[in-house]
Amino acid sequence: MRIEQFGVEEWMNAYEMTAKYNIAETCVESLTVEELLSLSGNIEGSLDEICSIKLTYGEIPGSAELRRYIASLYGRMNEEHILVTQGGIGANFLAQFSLIEPQDSVISVYPTYQQLYSVPKAFGAQVYLWQLRPENGFLPDVEELKAIAKSAKNLKMICLNNPNNPTGALMDEKFIKEVIEIADSFGAYVLCDEVYRGLEHETGNITPSIVDLYERGISTGSMSKVFSLAGLRLGWIAGPIEVIRECFLHRDYTTISCGRIDDYLGVVALKNRDRILERNRKIIQENLAILTSWIEKEDHVSWVPPKAGTTAFLNFGEYDISSRDFCRRLLNETGAFLVPGSAFGPEFEGWARIGFACDSEVLRKGLDCISAFLRKLEGEY
């Protein structure tokens, strides 16, 4: 099996650890173990419980308690509809590994997390890209989806990422239902990577999950972005029981179980999710205001303001420099770190992804570095 190089992850692997101001990070500022356990109100008791955990495999699909708490994030799921995985990346891979065959067709939004379209392509499926365009607020065109679906042979799956990484675009319920109507007419699954669900920027606006709207909907999520716990490497698949059973069969070839301590800490987080979400939404609101103010002062930088999540796409196209050279020079000369748009595909040359849910001071200093670099570029012309 041949698989395409993972553009964003390769960029992150090559440069992330050398960054002084990492404003490419997609997680909300991470919690420490102490901060997480303090939410329980009994750090010593929690530590005693952790120390008593026997490091066996534990419950292979994830503990019943963890799966119940994950199920509570949805409207009509229970623990039988949940399978715990190693991160959201493990969830997406396992769902596609279990359902996609070489004779199938897959439609994926683009740009998005590359895994959603490169993995089924590697499995031999015909993959069609459904492009998000800035002139449409980085929302795709439903009529274009209809046309692609009509031309596709054996359409098996439509892949969404909602809220979207890297653009921060958000499909509302009406839009999702239009996608569902098309998928249903072909008997296709809709796999929706929902790792940013819960971080909508409009207060009180929670995006409905695909599994609560469509009988063949599959949701993937994780503890990484919304809950600031990427180090746990915990994700999940939520979906129809027959899909979960199929994924469980294939999971025997990828992962026996996730770690029992990770499972325990995941339960602690989900028991206290309201407090974590309150913290994280506050960080996002404050930092989005910082970023918006900066954009307003930069005459040659534009964007489509994000509606949800932790990332935004910035357009530096007025500067005569490739996005990779822009980001590489920015890092080398200032220590500020962004992801070039071309890492998402050649169509996004002139753009760069920023992650704005980091520590506020890191964001401010990183933006100052970009401004100083832009002044230098302007002086070179």
From TrEMBL:
| InterPro entries according to UniProt | Aminotransferase_I/II_large (IPR004839), NHTrfase_class1_PyrdxlP-BS (IPR004838), PyrdxlP-dep_Trfase (IPR015424), PyrdxlP-dep_Trfase_major (IPR015421), PyrdxlP-dep_Trfase_small (IPR015422)
Q: Does Transferase show up as a keyword for this record?
A: yes
Lineage, top-rank taxon, reads Bacteria
CDD domains in the cross-refs: AAT_like
Print the keywords alphabetically.
Aminotransferase, Transferase
| Ranges for domain Aminotransferase class I/classII large | 56-368
EC supergroup of this enzyme:
transferase
* Molecular function via GO: transaminase activity
- The Enzyme Commission number assigned here is 2.6.1.-
**Which co-factors does it depend on?**
pyridoxal 5'-phosphate
PANTHER family according to UniProt: AMINOTRANSFERASE FUNCTION, HYPOTHETICAL (EUROFUNG) (PTHR43510:SF1)
The family line of this record is: Belongs to the class-I pyridoxal-phosphate-dependent aminotransferase family.
Name of protein: Aminotransferase
- What organism does the record attribute this protein to? Acetomicrobium flavidum
